[in-house]
């Protein structure tokens, strides 16, 4: 359940600042395999700055370096969050509701389509998140610091594989 929650968060963050959805975004998940979100995800502990340390090669993110995602204060009335995404030469915001722990539904805008981001896994120390989408078009590994240990990245790959992703296609970000 934690793995699915992280995947959802990754997708929401990936959509921040996107100018237009790709015509046909590739899926990095094996069709028909189950995916689960992190039911014990604590949104309050996840607030703050995250570095995108690995991702699947989505055309909308080509050429981005220094990618960060911030989870900002909950929306008025609770149950949601604002994602801020910054990268070399750009930034963007998107609001999302959270119908259940570890799952986010992006509020569509002219530049950002409706999408779900699931947190697939959160490390017990809240230093690493794995985020994806049920359709497999996005997947991120987020870390509080811009570097990540080989061991922790290996765990993230296992979580993505467990949730039906082709983890061999995950790429470190510059």
TrEMBL record:
<dbReference type="GO" id="GO:0006950">
    <property type="term" value="P:response to stress"/>
</dbReference>
<dbReference type="Pfam" id="PF08212">
    <property type="entry name" value="Lipocalin_2"/>
</dbReference>
<feature type="domain" description="Lipocalin/cytosolic fatty-acid binding">
    <location>
        <begin position="114"/>
        <end position="174"/>
    </location>
</feature>
<dbReference type="InterPro" id="IPR012674">
    <property type="entry name" value="Calycin"/>
</dbReference>
<feature type="signal peptide">
    <location>
        <begin position="1"/>
        <end position="25"/>
    </location>
</feature>
<dbReference type="InterPro" id="IPR000566">
    <property type="entry name" value="Lipocln_cytosolic_FA-bd_dom"/>
</dbReference>
<keyword id="KW-0732">Signal</keyword>
<protein>
    <submittedName>
        <fullName>Bacterial lipocalin</fullName>
    </submittedName>
</protein>
């Amino acid at each position: 359940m934690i793995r699915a929650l992280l995947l959802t968060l990754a997708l929401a963050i990936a959509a921040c600042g996107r100018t237009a959805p790709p015509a046909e975004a590739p899926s990095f998940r094996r069709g028909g395999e189950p995916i689960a979100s992190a039911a014990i995800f604590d949104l309050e502990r996840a607030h703050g700055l995250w570095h995108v340390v690995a991702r699947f090669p989505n055309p909308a993110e080509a050429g981005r370096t220094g990618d960060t995602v911030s989870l900002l204060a909950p929306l008025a009335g609770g149950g949601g969050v604002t994602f801020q995404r910054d990268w070399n030469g750009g930034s963007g915001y998107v609001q999302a509701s959270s119908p259940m722990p570890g799952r986010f539904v992006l509020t569509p805008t002219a530049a950002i389509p409706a999408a779900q981001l699931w947190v697939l896994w959160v490390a017990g120390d809240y230093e690493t998140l794995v985020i994806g989408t049920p359709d497999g078009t996005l997947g991120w590994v987020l870390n509080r610091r811009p570097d990540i240990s080989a061991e922790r990245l290996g765990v993230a790959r296992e979580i993505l594989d467990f949730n039906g992703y082709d983890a061999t296609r995950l790429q470190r970000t510059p």
